Amino acid sequence: MRYIALRWFVDARALCAVAAIIFAGGASHHASAATQPRYGGTLVMELHAPALVLDPLKWKAGAPESAASEQIAAAVFDRLVTLDRFGRFKPGLATDWSHDEGWRRWQFSLRAGVQFSDGSALSSADVAGALQELLAGGVVVMASGTRVVLQFAAAMPDLLEQLASGRYFIFRRKPDGTLLGTGAFFVSEFTPAASGTSISRYRLSSNEKCWAGRPFVDGLEVNLGVPALRQLFDLQLGKADVVEISPDLVRRAEQEKLRVWASVPVLLYALQVSAGEGVTPRAGAGKADLREALSLALDRATMANVLLQRQAEPAASFLPQWLSGYAFVFGTENNVERAKEIARTLFGASSAGQPLKLRVDAGGDLAKLIGDRVAINARQAGISVQLQTHGAVRDGLASGAGSSAKTGEAPALRLIAWRYSSLSERAELDAITSSLQLEAVGGEPGIADAEQTYVRERRLLTERGLIPLVIMPEYIGLGAGVRDWMPERWGERHLADVWLDGKSSGSERVQP
Amino acid sequence: MSFRTKLFLIFLITVLTSVSLVAYGVTHYTQAAFEELDAQRTEALVSQFKKEFAQRGEEVVHQVENIANAEITLRMALDLARPSADPSLYVHDATGAAQDHGLDFVEFVNADGTLISSAQYPARVGYKSDWVTSAKDWKESTAFLKKEELPDDVALSLTVVRTLPVGDKNFYIIGGRRLDQNFLASLVLPAGMRTLLYRNVEPGFVASALTDPNGEAAQADRFAPIIEQIQRSPEPVVQTVNWSTNPANAETFHAIPLPGRNNELLGVLLVGSSRRELVSLTEHIFQIAGVVAGAALLVGLLVSLWVAARITRPVEELADGARDVAAGHWDTHIRVRGRDEIGQLAGAFNEMTHTLAEQKERLVQTERVAAWRELARRLAHELRNPLFPMQITVENLQRARQLETKQFMEVFNESTATLRAELANLNAIVGRFSDFAKMPTPHFSRVNVNEALREVMRLFEAQFHEVGKPIITPEFFLAEPPPEIDADAEMLHRAFQNLVLNALDAMPAGGTLAMRTAEHNGNVRIEVADTGKGLTPEECSRLFTPYYTTKSQGTGLGLAIVQSVVSDHHGTISVVSEEGRGATFRIELPQRQTGAPVDVNGVAASAQTAAADLPKPPIAVA
Q: Which of A59, A120, B12, B15 has the fewest CB atoms inside 10 Å of its own CB, making it the most exposed?
């Protein structure tokens, strides 16, 4: 457990520097404007996601759309433990914790006096109930007084990383299915999209009884389904305080002197070679050869540096460098001639008659652009690829199998977008394996050994046909009045700490 | 078929043919004229399309030059000319330029051919576009057709390239407007016309590559022959497509090949013109022509009837006159109409009948005189035979007055006996002539012809085998079953009797007498043939003349009576004979007598029975 903290600390330094440079431009001239936090105002946020799902059980691992919900959920719910920017675990709802030598039995002591947003007290039973729902099978959660005991069938050395990230929020499920949280905010109002518009709105009010204290702002206004360009305009016009900025608009935002915050790379675009035996005319050729040919044909550097305007990095591994620490071991060789040779062995001298179907599961223009580039690169190597876009693929990776079934024909290739949500490498590997419905890649479950994780990942790439393409950060545009915007590097917000400069308080703004 | 009918039909056919030819000519040439007009209209549209095509090209040229002259483009070109330039800064600039200038396709290409930015295919950024740099000068080039590869499609583009010189290098701006259904929809077309565009992106015909202003063209496969023909030989093609059995639904398409910069076939523009209006117009003309032709035919029909009647009436009168003449009305006179050939013919006919009547009258008079002479001669001859003995007897009686009473009485008794005998002879002669003059009207009943012949032969059977005389051998060749005819049995018997007597007279040295009967076409043929001395042709021609005879003791009435009987039975009689080879008399009698009462209750068993039953005037046997 300790090594990860160190690793986080070392890795975070470099990433911090990048983000700090970006952030400095906007922040520096505001530093003198307001040094004392002040209460009041509504923080207006705009998200591209069309809907907000606050029930963690309904999130789909790796789905970018679920990530938006997770960010808002962090304002409504609390975790047992959290991780600071230096990789140190901090108490959350649990004040201390311990485990046995085999990492199988974990015991958490709960913070006293914590209340839900409706005023009811948080009990160990609530915590046990939530964890029992959220944790996968093979665990027994027991509540005892102010303590909660988790008994795992296998060793769980990375349990704290897991609980400090992702969907592991503590909640109480009410009889009507809605959830109560102990966070700084609670949902007070929902306005569905009016006819003729796709924008719906959530209003979150500050939780005066929050154990961590009242947030600075009075409330949050979360507008959903706002197109990327409109978010940028709204930020420029002062209609929004926090917006998402798509990578292709980052340069424009910078040119417009807007404040842009960037996370560590958290969004991965990857190609999944689904085709197996029989996809090519050559007998015996299959996924591995096709994956190698495609991987060599792909020009990831141009994708990242030209198409994505240097807002992304070429990716050779599934787990990012900041999470695994060994991503640099995987190479991103671009060898079109070698790819051609392999393609010739696969398809013969002439290109195969039927092009390989590339289904773009990820939504958005960016995914389409990357898919087009993949098709072009593949064509250069003599592999005919035909793009299939699925506008309805908003459910992320988990819908992959279902979508294939809908089309009636399994595509040979799939372009996926993966949003990291867990700080546990093992959990991420398990999630991607599960989401893509891949055959398990082995390894001893529960052992969070770096070497074994590396072996699992390599097998995931080579044997399960995953080709990472590019990885990119999350970009957030900040209004001029936003102060103390200090989210975690991987993107988790601390909206309770944010306050608004007086002159540009949300209450004075024109509502979108 | 009458002459009038023939003439009417000839007129009718002539009128029908003339009207049909005129109607066909009018409709054919009118249709051809409309086709020509339609073709000219389509040609005009094609010409308009070419102008519009050129105008669209000019618009693209204008917009691309605007992009090239924009400050932002110049900055981009200058920046990218630097060795350390970052082309990623301009990845999205083409999209903005395309939006700003209303173009579908915009690309920026660096001096080395590297694609810097693409509005239509951003993913291609970084790849080379060597075709741009290979051309030396794009400065004055016009718009050309280009196959534009898109991420998920291939489009046709009206493309223009302009260069922006930066130092000694060029920065290329490529702009284009898509040729698609929107382009087709923007063309202003007259009613009944439409355009389709085929993108020739693959060898052979691909139905999905054919679009019309509404999208993918319906029944695109019907255009396959046109497209494939142009693919084989890129020349304009005009072809009519029949969408259904109704010709009004057909369309005539002018297919125009659209070549690219290197004359490769990139597309085919199909300008379709509906034939509905043309067919409707043609049908209207057909209807009018039909009505006019019908009216003309009706008028022609009436005129033909009138003309035929006018022309044939004199001819019919001539024919009627000829029939009258044939019926024995020799003095028939017809009306002469006009002085034309028909009038002259009628006049000649009248003259002919007049002459014939006169000649007939003269002939009748001559024959009557001849007959009277013959009758007088015969009568004189017949009467002279008994008169001469009577004269001698009277002279003997006068001379015997001087004799003794006894002797005188002997002479007287002998003379009176002679006178009585000769007077009886005279009476018989007069009776025969009287009988011939009083030939009775036949009373018809069913008669078995074979039996009638057999009965006659039985009467003469004793004479055939009379001792001391030459033998006559009778022979019968009679039809079976026995033919029955409607006839007067007694008159028929007399006729057959006269023929047998005539045959016996002709065979003084004996011979064969043959009787033959046969049925033929409702008639019964009866032949009586002998093997006698025969007749000369002159004798044959006069044989049935009353009182003509070749025999020293004959009255010349036998065969005349036979002919009279045959005539009363509406039959015919003829004779065939060669001198020295006998003669054959042939009678043709109809089996049924029409227009006369026939006793059909019983068939007369024999002429004698019938004669006994019926009170008849005496019939002479000559």
A: A120
Q: How far is CA B337 from CA B303, B344, B507, in A?
A: 20, 9, 62
Strand partners, B109: B115, B172
Output the pLDDT for position B349: 86
- Nearest chain A residue to B119, by CA: A369
**Both tokens assigned to B37:** 């007009």
Report whether A317 contacts A300 (CB < 8 A).
no
pLDDT over 90 (residue B598): no
Mark yes or no for CB contact B151/A375 under 8 Å: yes
- The pLDDT of B28-41, averaged and rounded, is 81
Closest-CA residue of chain B to A372:
B123
Torsion of CA B362, B365, B371, B374, to 10 degrees: -90
Model pLDDT, residue B321: 85
The helix or strand, by DSSP H or E, that contains position B159, with its residue range, turns out to be: strand B153-166
What backbone phi and psi angles, to 5 degrees, belong to A507? -65, -20
CA distance A266 to A268: 7
Closest CA to B318 of B339, B347, B340, B357: B347
Q: Which residues of A touch B122 (CB under 8 A)?
A: 307, 369, 372
- Cα distance between residue A46 and residue A200, in whole Å: 10
Q: Which residue in the block uniquely carries the two structure tokens 């993918």?
A: B216
C-beta atoms of A372 and B123 within 8 A: yes
Count of beta carbons in the 10 Å neighbourhood of residue B135: 12
Query: Is the Cβ pair B91, A307 closer than 8 Å?
Result: yes
Distances (CA, A) of A334 to A294, A319, B559: 10, 20, 141
For chain A, list residues whose CB is within 8 angstroms of any CB belonging to chain B. Answer: 248, 251, 299, 302, 305-310, 368-373, 375-376, 386-387, 389
Residue with tokens 């036949």: B442
The span from the CA of A322 to the CA of A324, in Å, is 6
- pLDDT, tens digit, for every residue of A191-210? 988 887 888 999 999 999 89
Q: Between A and B, how many residue pairs show a Cβ–Cβ distance under 8 A?
A: 45
Note whether A24 and A31 are within 8 A (CB). no
pLDDT band at A13 (very low <50, low <70, confident <90, very high): very low
At a CB cut-off of 8 Å and minimum separation 6, what does B486 contact? B444, B445, B446, B447, B590, B591, B592, B593, B596, B598
Give the model confidence (pLDDT) of B402-414 as tens digits. Answer: 888 888 888 888 8
Task: Give bridge partners of residue B183 from the DSSP assignment.
Answer: none
pLDDT of residue B275: 80
| Minimum distance, in Å, between the CA of residue B36 and any CA atom of chain A | 48
Measured between beta carbons, which residues in chain A are less than 8 angstroms from residue B117?
none
Q: How many angstroms separate the CA atoms of A377 and A296, rounded?
A: 9
- What's the CA gap between B211 and B209, in Å, rounded? 6
Work out whether strand B144-150 and strand B153-166 pair parallel, antiparallel, or are unpaired.
antiparallel
Q: Which three-class secondary structure state does DSSP give residue A370?
A: helix
Whole-angstrom distance, CA of residue B205 vs CA of residue B265: 13
Residue A392 distance to chain B (closest CA, Å): 18
pLDDT at A455 over 70: yes
Q: How far is A374 from chain B (nearest CA, A)?
A: 8
Residue A462 structure tokens: 């080579």
Q: Is B396 left (phi over 0), alpha (psi -120 to 50) or beta?
A: alpha
Burial class of residue B385 in the structure, from the number of CB atoms within 10 Å of its CB (0-12 exposed, 13-18 middle, 19+ buried): middle
Structure ipTM: 0.73
Contacts of B86 in chain A (CB under 8 A): 310
Q: Do A309 and B89 touch (CB under 8 A)?
A: yes
Mutate to test the interface with A, among B76, B120, B127, B154 (most CBs of A within 10 A): B127
Q: Which residues does chain A have within 8 Å of residue B87's beta carbon, measured at their own beta carbons?
A: 306
A462 alpha carbon, distance to own chain's centre: 24
